[in-house]
Amino acid sequence: MSFLKDKLGQRGRAAGGQEDALLARYGILRNPFPAAGQTWDHPHMPTSVDDEIVHYIEAYNREHTSQVLVIEGTQGVGKTNLLNFYEKELTDFYAGAGFYMIQYFADPEPSFDKMLARLLQELGRDFLKNIGKALAQQGNIDKSRIIDDARSSDMRIVLNRLAYSSERDTEDDFDSTATAALDWLLGFRLLKRHREIFRGLQFRLDTVESKTVALRDLVFCSADLKILKGLVLLF
């Protein structure tokens, strides 16, 4: 059973075999000797910090409102290891439930623009394909309403094309459409193929403001389609 499923009362997978029993005999969770220099895959023994983190997760599950938890510490105390642990735990805990785990390793002086690009990149092509498929399954009135909620006219063009491609194109062409949509979201230069796929597309997303609006439109659209329930940001 995983740590979070144990804490929050959800049934996890059965325990392993002889190796797990041997590790448990010595009071450890897994092989305590990962490769030197790694910040991931080290065993995590629960501390008082875990109780606080679980409290915030319980509050989110109960209230469905955003929760923010700041964990501070000097270099080398294990902050990144803690984030890696909870990325795995939350991915398992929310598996198939419409939650996306995004871990952002910040530069010494991170910019919001880089963070936005990472968020959009982590959501990725498959997320855009899911939006296209979900839109194609809507009736015309509901589909138009959801797409029209997007603030950006260019985003409305992209969403319409994703829905059309999902319904009418081959899988390869649908992949190409979703890839082109991701290129646009990441602020790549508009090429001839982008203008051919998304007829009427005018502007590249090369400013923080435009990317922020695009992310807002994607979140509202996918939430309305019930394919996104939450973003868990670890950075």
What's the arrangement of secondary structure elements?
Layout (H helix, E strand, L loop, with lengths): L2 H6 L9 H8 L22 H16 L15 H15 L5 E5 L8 H25 L3 H9 L4 H16 L2 H15 L6 H6 L10 H17 L5 E5 L1
Parallel strand pairs: 1-2
Molecular structure report:
With 235 residues, the chain is mainly alpha-helical. Helices cover 57% and strands 4% of the residues. The chain has ten helices and two strands; from the N terminus they run H-H-H-H-E-H-H-H-H-H-H-E. The chain has helices spanning 3-8, 18-25, 48-63, 79-93, 112-136, 140-148, 153-168, 171-185, 192-197, 208-224, and strands at residues 99-103, 230-234. Strands 1-2 form a two-stranded parallel sheet. The relative contact order is 0.12.
Strand order, main sheet: write it out: 1-2
The count of strands amounts to 2
- Cα separation of the termini: 26 Å
- SSE string: HHHHEHHHHHHE
Helix content: 55-70%
Principal-axis shape:
elongated
Name the beta content range.
under 5%
Summarize the structure.
The chain is mainly alpha-helical and 235 residues long.
List keywords for this structure.
235 residues; 10 helices; 57% helix; two-stranded parallel sheet; elongated; mainly alpha
